[in-house]
Design the sequence.
């Protein structure tokens, strides 16, 4: 990326657009009663995705931006599992008969930190309460540092099909700087055990922009990661926001790379992973050419949700657990963030909805445009508007802002077709922001564009 573009866009803060509007715009106007009504209105022919948030870790990684808590014993986990079971029953009871679950995702935190018998019981509860398709994808996020053979066996027994392993960096100096010591052999052993158990879908998550990271160490991490032959790789940029995540304050900002170095790291990692046979998916994912997500990208069916890029085409995402966010045709619902308050709400109401957002027709139209840009880097505004029976003029971006992006080579409008060139993919969020009516110009709660 040109140095002048790095200098221009490095301070811009924009959402990651895993949703539109972004979660800071949710309000308490969406309540438990609202969520109940929306669930009752579900079309019996709907397809569902389920997301379960398991907010526990054995130690805190200093780069982490997730909602999680460190636990030293199992009692809090068992209490949480009991509440999660209650929430599952409450939601299932409100749904009509008919909807089929196509995707299940366990996120965290560290889902595999659960007691093995607790995880088995949770999966049994899911299968009891919901119609899970025989070919459903069941995915789980894994910290290789805490994965044991009993849990691997349980994952295979309950039907897990995909595992996403956090790596971040294999550089020992970087690992020390982020409080996550994870030698390559530990990750290699986890991947080997998962495959031996029959779990063939393997994702590895990498991060650039971490303290003490260099272009050379980033490329070496890619080389080591690819040696494990994962189906998919993600390459995310670290967002240093100690004002929102206090533990990030333990990272010395003087050890963080500047914007130019971040771009150099990203570019080097992208070039390295593609040279090793992977294709680029969306903004920050890579996959083997024969992987389902690569095929979806090629066919134009790639989607984006709170888990990032996905093949999931379900009509609804039902989310469970503290801080979990779901998506229904009517809008978004977000659970209480704090763990003690979540447990109390479930005990009192069976649900823990704290806020959300009811989407207007204009919101849905703009969400469709933004998702197309994030997934395909190409959208025909007239075609999208026609699908909503709306004149495309209503969503045409500000002419001056668009001209500015076009002058930088970041986006081009050809008639009503907006295209983001390959070289500008790292700035696609800045293009998507053209259509964001809710965006705060200061963007204080969002990560930097670069």
Sequence:
């Amino acid at each position: 990326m040109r140095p002048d573009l790095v200098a221009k866009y490095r301070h811009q803060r924009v959402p990651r657009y895993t949703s539109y509007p972004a979660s800071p715009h949710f309000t308490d106007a969406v309540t438990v009663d609202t969520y109940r009504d929306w669930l009752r209105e579900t079309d019996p022919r709907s397809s569902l995705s389920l997301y379960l948030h398991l907010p526990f870790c054995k130690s805190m990684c200093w780069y982490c931006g997730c909602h999680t808590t460190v636990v030293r014993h199992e009692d809090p986990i068992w209490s949480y599992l009991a509440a999660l079971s209650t929430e599952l029953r409450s939601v299932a009871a409100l749904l009509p008969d008919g909807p089929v679950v196509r995707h299940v995702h366990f996120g965290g935190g560290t889902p595999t930190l659960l007691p093995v018998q607790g995880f088995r019981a949770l999966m049994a509860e899911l299968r009891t309460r919901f119609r899970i398709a025989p070919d459903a994808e069941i995915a789980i996020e894994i910290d290789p540092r805490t994965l044991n053979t009993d849990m691997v066996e349980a994952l295979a027994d309950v039907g897990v099909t995909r595992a996403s392993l956090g790596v971040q960096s294999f550089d020992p100096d970087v690992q020390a700087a982020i409080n996550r010591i994870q030698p390559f052999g530990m990750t290699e052993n986890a991947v080997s055990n998962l495959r031996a158990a029959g779990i063939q879908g393997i994702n590895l998550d990498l991060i650039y922009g971490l303290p003490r990271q260099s272009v050379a160490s980033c490329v070496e991490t890619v080389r080591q990661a690819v040696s494990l032959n994962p189906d998919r790789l993600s390459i995310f940029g670290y967002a240093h926001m100690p004002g929102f995540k206090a533990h990030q304050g333990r990272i010395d900002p003087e050890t963080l790379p500047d914007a130019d170095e971040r771009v150099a790291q990203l570019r080097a990692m992208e070039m390295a992973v593609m040279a090793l046979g992977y294709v680029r998916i969306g903004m920050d994912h890579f996959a083997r050419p024969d992987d389902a997500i690569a095929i979806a990208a090629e066919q134009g069916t790639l989607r984006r949700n709170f888990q990032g890029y996905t093949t999931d085409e379900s009509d609804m995402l039902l989310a469970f657990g503290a801080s979990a966010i779901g998506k229904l045709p009517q809008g978004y619902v977000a659970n209480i963030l704090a763990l003690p308050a979540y447990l109390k709400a479930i005990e009192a109401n069976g649900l823990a909805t704290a806020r959300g957002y009811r989407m207007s027709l204009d919101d849905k139209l703009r969400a469709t445009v933004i998702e197309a840009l994030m997934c395909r880097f190409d959208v025909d505004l007239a075609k999208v508007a026609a699908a909503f029976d709306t004149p495309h003029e209503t969503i045409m971006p500000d002419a001056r802002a668009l001209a500015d992006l076009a002058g930088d080579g970041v986006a081009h409008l050809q008639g009503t077709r907006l295209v983001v060139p390959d070289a500008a993919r790292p700035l696609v969020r800045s293009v998507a922001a053209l259509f964001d009516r809710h965006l705060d110009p200061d963007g204080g709660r969002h990560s930097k564009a670069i």
About this structure: The chain is about 35% helix and 20% strand. The chain has two domains: 1-15+360-439, 16-320. Residues 25 and 359 are 11 Å apart (CA to CA).
